[in-house]
Amino acid sequence: MMMMIRIPFLFLLATAIVITSSPSIGKRLIESKSNTNGSITDLAEMRRSFASLALSCVHREYPNKIAHVLASDTDIQAPRYLTPAFYGCFDWHSAVHGHWLLARLARIDANLSAECRQALAKSLTKEKLQEEIVYIGSEQRPSFERPYGLAWFLQLAMELDEWAHEEKQNAEEILQWRENVRPLEDLIVTRLSSWLPKLSYPIRSGEHSQTAFALGFLLDYAHRMNNIAFAELIEQRSLDYFSTDTNYPFVYEPSGEDFLSAGLAEADLLRRIMKNKPQDFIQWFNRFLPPSSLPSSLEPPLIADPTDPKSIHLAGLCLSRAWMLEGIADGLSVDIQQNERRNQLLELSQRNAQAGLIAIDENHYEGGHWLGTFAVYYITRRGLINSTTCQNYTTTTLLLCLASKIFL
């Protein structure tokens, strides 16, 4: 029964991607494949599938896991009172990036805009965000959601900023949300700017505490906001942590509850920092991961129990690997001598993407409350805004990979 749920979802994903950028392949798929009702799904339906995951949970308070430091009896309150803007989706960081998902899809898909904007309007009020500042700004919570949740919040601020600048109709509401998040955004930037110089060593975990993943998100934000001081701090600390790394031991990945690869996140971060010196990145990466062969440990992992809240982390690992591998491949694209290696990375990206997408199941809240965000970040190429090389490759290879494994 579970496969009957997932097959249409994957079919609509493959169909949607190929229709938008490769009509000939899409035409052949349309002629030969249809869903159980005999109708052909399209891009809007695929995006709606992801949007529905976030819409169903951003204001769902329970179950809830709060990372909550109690300073007194008065701190014993329900999540909707402690953090009234971001209390759904099981935990604070998932609520934040669930709102990012809605902003991202509302921005790029007019058919979803009204529904997503309604949910955003309920959360992103000035009053609720002020309460978030009171909670997060407490001297009892200096490490709250640091760095993972804070990095996702700055991604949300960046998305709203870009949306507000490009929106031509009904922009006032988006501009208001943009201004409403700014005070908390400033608090977070100040807090992270104080923390990074004191972080003596990078945290190389595969979960929320990981340093490299967060720094990549923070750097994207700093560049968008033209915050030169913040960007320079991030770049310098990143080089301090990672620039001398060689022969990364990928054989030790993954751990059983990872949703991030410490090694790939590091490489994807350095790719960003060295974007204006791509040959420097290529030299660094070839020392970091010698080009003889790709480690077998980077192949998609076994997800033994997708209903287990920690085991399902491995689906997120697949999706984050997929976009990181695409980013790294993009960093190699300036050198034709790297083409074979680049294609190997892209093929590995697709195998991980397939495994991650297959694991998304709206019937299991353990993954449903957050995996949609990872899928949207991957399929909308959020980390590769200025690149088309990986996207052109993906539109064909993802379709063929999914079709050969699932539909035929």
Structure write-up:
- With 408 residues, the protein is mainly alpha-helical.
- It has 18 helices and no strands.
- It has helices at residues 2-21, 23-32, 43-55, 79-82, 92-108, 110-123, 126-136, 148-166, 171-195, 211-224, 228-242, 262-273, 278-288, 313-332, 339-358, 365-368, 371-379, 389-407.
- The protein is globular and about 55 Å long.
Q: What is the helix fraction of residues, given as a range?
A: 55-70%
Q: Which stretches are low in confidence, meaning pLDDT under 50 for 5 or more residues running?
A: 1-41, 393-408
Main sheet summary: none
User: Given the helix and strand composition, which structural class is it?
Assistant: mainly alpha
Q: Kindly report how far apart the N and C termini lie.
A: 18 Å
- H/E element order: HHHHHHHHHHHHHHHHHH
Query: Mean of residue pLDDT?
Result: 87
Number of helices: 18
Any idea what the shape is? globular
Instruction: Give the C-alpha Rg.
Output: 21 Å
Report the sheet-strand fraction.
Answer: under 5%
How many β-strands, per DSSP? 0
Question: Helices and strands in order, then pairings?
Answer:
Elements: H1 2-21, H2 23-32, H3 43-55, H4 79-82, H5 92-108, H6 110-123, H7 126-136, H8 148-166, H9 171-195, H10 211-224, H11 228-242, H12 262-273, H13 278-288, H14 313-332, H15 339-358, H16 365-368, H17 371-379, H18 389-407
